[in-house]
Design goal:
Keywords: Decarboxylase, Lyase, Metal-binding, Zinc. The chain is 39% helix and 16% strand. It has 339 residues and is α/β, with parallel strands linked by helices.
Length: 339
């Protein structure tokens, strides 16, 4: 029977070594975990509360119980982006990456192959990023999650392109997650950074991949998936296509029109509404959408896959592709499992 594979989940370890010291007279902005009890904790950034979390962030048993309730066979388990450390020196960032990457293996190990760890890398330094990726692959990681930008450097930055070329050469799946959204008084209300900033960040980075010529520079074998349905990209592809033709003098950084790159990337299904999912299918193609949930966070989908399972416009074959077939190819897993 087909596997159900969730490509978008996150972990947080239940503690880690101290990541560094603040400079003289400075408050640390490094993340740490304030443990409340056996099942509850709070991610802290310096003295600021970032997010309250539960034991399903680190406890494989709890994850597997939830997966059973939601009929999920396999989870991809990726870092929580607050730990990326792209604003640190490369040496600090690789040290932090090693801490979390090694702890991710410990979290996933009890699950007998049902939890597949994705690593993080110091993306601000392409050589160190490639080295850490190779170390993690040898240790058992199955792919890599990257943030959608490093400061003001988007995914068309030469160093990031070098890293993506390395991923393509290794056949490593890449999951792109928005992070470090701009802040302002207007975005400080109603979780607007998450509700508008995250979709905009992902849209912007897909533009960088296309208009920055990244898809012209990396092999077609690159396996890359963007979180949260690719943000607002699918809805505004027509506007982008029109601009490429009408103002090619300004935005013509790609060898071909934007629509010609459909099929070169995937998105996950975390859009929460059947009509939004239908738009993804119509614009991006049913083969390019992977089941995702953003588990275990409150803005994720539970039960996992409910929109895909209830979408009446999907045939059973298409539903199977979205629930697991597409992800199996992305991850180089068997599409069928025996019971």
């Amino acid at each position: 029977m087909p596997q159900v594979i969730d490509v978008h989940t996150h972990y947080v370890p239940r503690g880690w070594p101290q990541l560094g010291e603040a400079g003289p007279g400075q408050e640390s902005t490094l993340p740490w975990l304030r443990v409340e009890n056996e099942r509850e904790a709070t991610i802290m950034v310096g003295s600021r509360e970032f997010r309250r979390i539960l034991a399903n962030c680190w406890d494989a048993g709890e994850r597997l119980r939830d997966m059973g309730e939601d009929r999920v066979d396999v989870q991809v388990v990726s870092p929580t982006p607050v730990f990326f450390s792209y604003d640190r020196t490369p040496a600090e960032a690789v040290r932090i990456a090693k801490v979390f990457n090694d702890l991710a293996l410990e979290i996933c190990e009890p699950a007998s192959g049902r939890l597949l760890p994705f690593c993080q890398v110091p993306l601000q330094d392409p050589d160190l990023a490639c080295e850490e990726l190779d170390r993690c692959l040898a240790a058992g990681h199955r792919g890599v999650e990257i943030g959608n930008h490093v400061g003001d450097r988007d995914l068309d930055d030469a160093g990031i392109v070098t890293f993506l070329q390395h991923c393509a050469a290794k056949g490593v799946p890449v999951f792109v997650h928005p992070w470090d959204m701009p802040s302002s008084p207007r975005l400080g209300r109603w979780m607007s950074q998450w509700l508008t900033g995250m979709p905009a960040e992902t849209h912007l980075s897909l533009l960088a991949m296309i208009l920055g010529g990244v898809f012209d520079q990396v092999p077609e074998t690159l396996k890359i998936c963007f979180a949260h349905g690719g943000g607002s990209f699918a809805f505004w592809l027509g506007r982008l296509e029109n601009a490429w033709h009408e103002r090619h003098d300004v935005i013509g950084g790609s060898a071909n029109p934007p629509s010609s790159y459909l099929g070169r990337f995937s998105v996950d299904s975390v859009v929460f509404d059947p009509s939004a999912l239908r738009l993804l299918v119509d614009v991006l193609g049913v083969e390019n959408i992977l089941l995702g949930s953003d588990y275990p966070y409150p803005l994720g989908e539970r039960p996992v896959g409910q929109v895909v399972r209830k979408a009446q416009f999907l045939s059973e074959t298409e539903r199977g592709l979205l629930l697991g077939g597409n992800a199996a190819r992305f991850l180089s897993l068997p599409e069928e499992v025996t019971t």
